[in-house]
Amino acid sequence: MCAICGCGVASTDGQLHPQQAEAPHPIGPHADHDADSDHEHVLSDGTVLRHKHPQLASPVQSRVLDVERALLADNDAQAQLNRRRFDRAKTLTLNLMSSPGAGKTTLLEATLRRLHGSLSVSVIEGDQQTSLDAERIRRAGAQAVQVNTGKACHLDAGMIDRALTELTLPPGGVLFIENVGNLVCPASFDLGEHQRIVIASVTEGEDKPLKYPDMFARADLVVVSKIDLLPHLDFDPQRFAEHVRRVQPRAKLLQVSARSGEGLAAWLDWLTAQVRALD
Amino acid sequence: MHELSLAIRLVSLVEEEASRAACTKVSTVTVRLGALSCVEPSSLQLAFLAARRDTIAASAQLIIESVPAHAVCLSCEASMEVTQRASPCPICGAFALVVSGGDELRLSRLEVV
After folding, report:
1. What three-state secondary structure class fits A67?
2. Where are the alpha helices (DSSP H) in chain B?
3. Backbone angles phi, psi at B29, to 5 degrees
4. B-chain residues within 8 Å CB-CB of A62?
5. Chain A partners of B2 at a C-beta cutoff of 8 Å?
6. What Å distances lie between residue A16 and A12, A19, A22, B33, CA to CA?
7. Chain B residues whose beta carbon lies within 8 Å of the beta carbon of residue A68
8. Does position A166 have pLDDT exceeding 60, yes or no?
9. Does the model's ipTM exceed the 0.90 cut?
10. Which of B93, B96, B97, B62 is closest to B83 using CA atoms?
11. Hey, are the CB atoms on A66 and B98 less than 8 Å from each other?
12. What is the 3-state secondary structure (H, E, C) of A130-157?
């Protein structure tokens, strides 16, 4: 083996390379030329050695494959199909995300009561187990499908596609997708929704947007819930709003209490405006 | 996030590409990971060790290249690269950065034998 470049054949203009020891090439064999082409080495005393590599015994040549494939490409492609379906049906689709217990289902129940059927609503409920939430929604008067994610902590676009086989998309209405209660994982999965809504209850504290920035960074609307509890807490809505803006300066903010009804009119106005904007 | 399921998905993409290229071994797998993607590089490395087992990538090294996100400041209109959310504008100090990109998550290239 050539002691300088490590190539398998050691012949230089008919002679052997000066050293025959098996020394590794300083920058790897044949880093600067094709393995089987003529090439030369210039030694420290100025001697130029030329040689050929007719055949390589070792090392085996590796090659680089440029691939460029997105890891979540399957989900993104399905999300695009979902979105086209929502567009064709003219159904405003909203992905509702929050930590567990922030009041997503309660807000939907209050919304349905206030709408009195003036807007047609369907709901996809995501939870690890049970159909408790879908039953609550049905009792409040809307069509609901429960998706159980089992051990998974988020909904993905394929689950929405499957849920749509059991649901009619209300033309000119709204499809709410209530994601699994989780402020981390659902942020990464496009479901094909038109807008993302993040709900944060006042009992969770003002620092949630800073602690879970990935979720808030993708929000179109942030709803602060349970504001009827404000008199009992140190929660400062201004500080919370400032923290949301740090992560997503363009997110719109609303404050609601499903229990007292405060702020629900503004929420319904926002909803109606989004439905109109889709038309 | 879901480093294990992503690693499994990654290895199946690697297997697809390697069989298409008719190679016998994958020595390195390079992924491009947005600085703001919800993936923890060290968890992905660990999950990759489990996912590569008994595959053509069984001895492959995972190289993670970080890709920064871009941001524009709504206050001073400067544009910049960012690697973290909720950070102030380095020019004017305002917390008014609108961030784009930085969430990519892709298999970029393979070194194969």
Report:
1. strand
2. 3-20, 41-51
3. -125, 120
4. 27, 111-113
5. 185, 188
6. 5, 8, 13, 48
7. 106-109
8. yes
9. no
10. B97
11. no
12. CCHHHHHHHHCCCEEEEEECCCCCCCCH
B10: chain A residues, CB-CB within 8 Å? 71
C-alpha neighbours within 13 Å on the C-beta side of residue A233: 14
Nearest CA in chain B to A188: B38
Q: How far is CA B101 from CA A1, A44, B98, in A?
A: 49, 50, 10
Strand, coil or helix: A21: coil
User: Hey, which bits of A52-127 come out as E strands?
Assistant: 63-70, 92-98, 121-127
Among the partner-chain residues A60, A69, A188, the one whose CB lies closest to the CB of B13 is: A69
Which helix (DSSP H) or strand (DSSP E) does residue A110 occupy? Answer: helix A104-115
Closest to A270 measured CA to CA, from A214, A222, A230: A222
- Give the Cα separation of B99 and B85 in Å (integer): 8
Q: Are A164 and A191 in contact (CB under 8 A)?
A: no
Q: A138-143 contacts: CB < 8 A, separation 24 or more?
A: A140/A108, A140/A109, A140/A112, A140/A113, A141/A112, A141/A117, A142/A108, A142/A112, A143/A167, A143/A168, A143/A170
DSSP-based three-state secondary structure for A87 = helix
pLDDT at A49: 72
Locus of tokens 């020891």: A21
What confidence tens digit (pLDDT) does each residue in A189-240 have? Answer: 999 999 999 999 999 999 999 999 999 999 999 999 999 999 999 999 999 9
A117 at the B interface (CB within 8 A)?
no
Nearest CA in chain B to A182: B1
A239 — contact with chain B (CB < 8 Å)?
no
